[in-house]
From TrEMBL:
The protein's role, per its UniProt record: Catalyzes the transfer of the alpha-amino group from S-adenosyl-L-methionine (SAM) to 7-keto-8-aminopelargonic acid (KAPA) to form 7,8-diaminopelargonic acid (DAPA). It is the only aminotransferase known to utilize SAM as an amino donor.
Pathway assignment: Cofactor biosynthesis; biotin biosynthesis; 7,8-diaminononanoate from 8-amino-7-oxononanoate (SAM route): step 1/1
Name used for this protein in its record: Adenosylmethionine-8-amino-7-oxononanoate aminotransferase
Record field: transmembrane: none
Site (Participates in the substrate recognition with KAPA and in a stacking interaction with the adenine ring of SAM): C16
Binding positions (substrate): W53, Y146, K281, S316, R412
N6-(pyridoxal phosphate)lysine sites (modified residues): K281
SUPFAM superfamilies documented for this protein: PLP-dependent transferases
Coiled-coil boundaries: none
Key words of the record: Aminotransferase, Biotin biosynthesis, Cytoplasm, Pyridoxal phosphate, S-adenosyl-L-methionine, Transferase
Annotated binding of pyridoxal 5'-phosphate, by residue: G113, S114, D252, H317, T318
Organism: Clostridium vincentii
Gene Ontology MF annotations: adenosylmethionine-8-amino-7-oxononanoate transaminase activity; pyridoxal phosphate binding
């Protein structure tokens, strides 16, 4: 065994894993990246279909971003963000206010997605306390939601594997059954969906609005639920009812922001402006930990006044407003504009979708191919007619993942759902390799013929 692998196993506890799995599938040590490709220390290469956990927008070791980092590091790498500021943070804040929905006018910096969610929850609660609405202290979240794994964020998550054990420690969240277009109970036509499923949310809000501080959603796509996509009509209805009952709407765009769904922000599909927008992952092009929470003048103004612990938002993260992260984010957005990234993604997204649909046609184990912008997901089922899935113990996705790795493809399935979320700079040839190799891997899993 390679020395690095040995030491990795000796010293490191990897995230989101049963470490015993590493006995069979050893950690793959990457020493170089270029574009969509990752190169390991044994000379193998892998196409990064998942943008290294949904973060990488413009490819690994992007020349322009590397230059921006080199330039920034020679002026200031990091400076305390309390009472001090830095040029890239200021420029980035202005830029974000200009490109996000109109009501979002203030930017609060943090350093990862979960803390952005914590901040939005705390701000919403704290706002209501200041308004004297002491009973508004609960949050509403959708079934199968994912919002991060610190205790507050985990409280609004609904993924059993992540939540179950910690239940005694979590907030008392109101859980509402979310949209599920693939297994829709409402007989909606997918292309003329009127989000009839919203009735469950409506009922919940009418009954509980006195207690509700905010509703948190992943707009358009519930990522960790298995790239579950839903209609913008749902978001429109949600915005309306939140306005009616003085409830905050928190848009967790941590995964979907920065062009992933084909619009700069997923909320744009519904033309809504949330009260809080959490951004992370794609913000810093997959280079550095970084996040922001954006909010409205109304929320900001409520906290504005003489210093006291009831009025001030006394929350901080050491690396808030990190100058390196902000410089990267600025260059990322500059490239988005200059290279027309979102516009060019339309064709690429469409090609991925088309090739995937063609391949899926003949495979009876593919229940659904769903797609939006630069996401295409493939749900594997036992039986197309009943849509019954495989039990998780079979780890179908994990087995396909291992086969795909041996063919130079980095997938990271969620249960029975395989998906492509590649860096936006992927080219046509790479798209073909990605789709073909993925389907070869699926076929080999089901036929048992390994090539
Ligand atoms: C990844 C993710 C988070 C958590 O972000 P971390 O940086 O991993 O803490 C929260 N919400 C959504 C929708 C995410 O995809």
């Amino acid at each position: 065994m390679n020395d690095y692998v040995k030491k990795d196993l000796k010293y490191i506890w990897h995230p989101c894993a049963q470490m015993k799995d590493y006995e069979d599938l050893k950690p793959i040590v990457i020493e170089k990246g270029e574009g969509v490709w990752l190169y390991d220390i044994d000379g193998n290469k892998y196409l990064d279909c998942i943008s290294s956990w949904w973060t990488n927008t413009l490819g690994h070791s992007n020349k322009r971003i590397n230059e921006a980092i080199k330039k920034q590091i020679d002026s200031i790498e990091h400076v305390i963000f309390a009472n001090f500021s830095n040029k890239p943070a200021i420029e980035l804040a202005e830029k974000l206010v200009n490109i996000t929905p109109s009501k979002l006018t203030k930017v609060f910096f943090s350093d990862n997605g979960s803390s952005a969610v914590e901040i939005a929850l705390k701000m919403s609660f704290h706002y209501n306390m200041q308004k004297g609405r002491d009973e508004k202290r609960r949050f509403v979240a959708l079934s199968d939601a994912y919002h991060g794994e610190t205790l507050g964020a985990l409280s609004v998550c609904d993924i059993d594997e992540f939540n179950m054990v910690y239940k005694p420690l979590l907030l008392d969240t109101i859980r509402v059954e979310g949209p599920d277009c693939y297994r829709c109970k409402y007989d909606c036509a997918r292309d003329a969906c009127n989000a009839e499923c919203f009735e469950v949310m409506e009922k919940c809000i009418i009954e509980n609005h006195d207690e509700i501080s905010a509703v948190i959603v992943e707009p358009m796509v519930q990522g960790a639920a298995g790239m579950r996509m839903y209609s913008p009509v749902y978001l429109k209805k949600l915005r309306q009812i939140c306005d009616k009952y003085d409830i905050h709407l928190i848009a967790d765009e941590i995964a979907m922001g920065f062009g992933r769904t084909g619009e700069m922000f997923a909320c744009n599909h519904a033309q809504i402006s949330p009260d809080f927008m959490c951004l992370s992952k794609g913000i810093s092009a997959g280079y550095m930990p970084m996040s922001v929470v954006m909010t409205t003048d109304e929320v900001y103004d409520c906290f504005y006044g003489d210093y006291n612990e009831r009025k001030s938002f006394l929350h901080s993260h050491t690396y808030s407003g990190n100058a390196m992260g902000c410089a990267i984010a600025l260059e990322n957005l500059k490239i988005f504009e200059e290279d027309n990234i979102i516009e060019n993604n339309r064709e690429k997204g469409e090609l991925i979708r088309k090739l995937t649909m063609e391949k899926a046609e003949s495979l009876k184990h593919v229940g659904e191919v769903r797609s939006i912008g630069m996401i295409t997901a493939i749900e594997i089922v036992k039986d197309r007619a009943t849509k019954e899935g495989y039990p998780w113990q079979m780890r179908v996705g994990y087995e396909i993942y291992k086969i795909a790795l041996s063919k130079g493809l980095l997938l990271r399935p969620i249960g029975n759902v395989l998906y492509f979320i590649p860096p936006y700079i992927i080219n046509e040839e790479e798209i073909k390799f990605m789709v073909n190799t993925c389907f070869q891997s699926i076929e080999e899993y089901f036929t048992g013929n390994r090539s």
